[in-house]
Design a protein that fits this description.
alpha/beta, 6 helices, 2 domains, single chain
């Protein structure tokens, strides 16, 4: 269950989100199993069990992106990218820093609201975020796009619980474990992307995952691999 934790004195944002998703507004916590969306100093955050005041942010610095395995996979001549599975927008952020325009789709409503809030905060100090268009919805419903690249990161289906990640990733995983809003498979995303006729489709995969024989080229990093499908 998702609740919006808000006071009457500052609740316009709460009513707007409640109207969009149907989440009840409460003034105090009561359900120990629930996610509580609330307002913090810098955007929106969530309380969930032992995770307190966790939100998304884009303050991380990325160095040496130019010429990296990630940049090579995206392609130097690419301009517009459709990120089919936005998630925490970490990779979208890298694309923006590389100078690309990005349209990112997020189907999970709580993840979308947290990302939307974090973007609003980021645009106040990071110019690159002006090139991002975050869309709430299922990318598989897109029938036409002018993107040069479609980027697919299906790794949210493969949750590795052996290591404790940062709190934003912990929250992201808890949300996806608690709510099923999309049962699409990796192969469905690939077939959809190839069907759009986009010349470059990039799929992010664990480095040890067996390679698909239809992959045109692989860009291998230390822990992940970017597999390239082409329509040329």
């Amino acid at each position: 269950m998702i609740f919006i934790l808000a006071d009457d004195d500052d609740s316009q944002w709460a009513h707007e989100i409640s109207a969009s998703h149907g989440w009840p507004i409460v003034s105090q916590k009561g359900n120990k199993e629930a996610f509580y969306l609330k307002k913090a100093k810098d955007g929106l955050c969530v309380d969930y069990k032992d995770l307190k005041g966790v939100g998304f942010d884009f303050s991380k610095k990325y160095f040496k992106l130019e010429g990296s395995v990630f940049a090579k996979a995206i392609g130097k001549g690419s301009k517009k990218i459709l990120d089919a599975t936005a998630g925490l927008l970490k990779d979208s952020h890298k694309m923006l820093l590389l100078g690309h325009e990005v349209t990112a789709f997020e189907i999970q409503p709580l993840v979308y609201e947290l990302s939307k809030s974090a973007i609003s905060v980021a645009t106040k100090s990071i110019d690159s975020f002006s090139g991002l268009n975050l869309v709430f919805g299922n990318s598989l419903e897109v029938n036409d796009t002018d993107a040069d690249v479609i980027y697919i990161d299906p790794m949210f289906h493969h949750v590795n619980k052996s290591a404790l990640p940062k709190k934003d990733m912990q929250l992201f995983r808890k949300i996806n474990e608690s709510f099923t809003v999309d049962s699409s498979t990796e192969s469905q995303f690939i077939e959809w992307a190839k069907g759009l006729g986009i010349p470059r489709v990039v799929v992010k995969r664990p480095i040890k995952q067996p390679k698909d024989k239809l992959v045109a080229h692989s860009f291998t990093g230390k822990s992940v691999r970017y597999d390239l499908y082409t329509n040329n």
